[in-house]
Amino acid sequence: MFDRIAGFYDVMNSVMTAGLHHRWRERAADLARLRPGDRALDVATGTGDLAVELARRVAPGGEVIGSDFSQGMLERARTKAPELTWEWGNALELPYPDNIFDAATVGFGARNFSDLDRGLAEMARVVKPGGRVVVLEITTPTKPPLSTFFSIWFDRIVPLMGRFDEAYTYLPKSVKRFPGPEALGGVLARAGLDDVRWILTAGGIIALHSGTVR
């Protein structure tokens, strides 16, 4: 599915978010608290936008690896930023030793983990103690009128916009079954993070979670 939509993934993201997804990724990269010379991993990197933001913060002398299990997405990422390292990887079994990155991020990919606890624990495993894990994800607002708008947008309009592929029917379903902000905070704490915090933005539709590896 992700290979199929790779060619129009960036366009659909911009249309569905009015271009705001770039600003959300900037904020996620800020929460990683990276410095020049650091190493960072972006899991489920997709076409690489968050990895590119991380790279701006570790330069000069740093390294960013974008990892994804979709070769189609990685091909787009390589075209976008050939200077970065793009590697195939399974988020539930990251092919990296313990404690080698200063931060690990995931942007709009955690809800696709078949085992959320395991995926987030893997991200924490590969980050050094004191390093950061950041999760940027869509969340479901609970109070009207935004909750009403969100329901109409995701249940009716988004599938129509992506009617040429079933992936955009999958999208609202994946958001609905994903844990809310407080529950996700608990998963991050179980994964080995301290000082877990989250920020809600875009009226409560977007959540940015972060924590420090023990």
Q: State the share of residues found in helices, binned by percent.
A: 40-55%
CATH domain class name: Alpha Beta
Number of strands: 7
Mean pLDDT: 90
CATH superfamily label:
Vaccinia Virus protein VP39
How many structurally independent domains? Answer: 1
Q: What is the overall shape?
A: globular
What are the secondary-structure elements, in order, as H or E? HHHEHEHEEHEHHHEE
Report the sheet-strand fraction. Answer: 15-25%
| CATH fold descriptor | Rossmann fold
Strand order of the largest sheet: 3-2-1-4-5-7-6
Q: Gap between N and C termini, in Å?
A: 36 Å
The SS-based structural class is alpha/beta
What's the story with the biggest beta sheet? Answer: 7 strands, mixed
What is the count of helical runs?
9
Known CATH architecture = 3-Layer(aba) Sandwich
- CA-atom Rg in angstroms: 16 Å
Which regions are unreliable across 5 or more consecutive residues at pLDDT < 50?
Answer: none
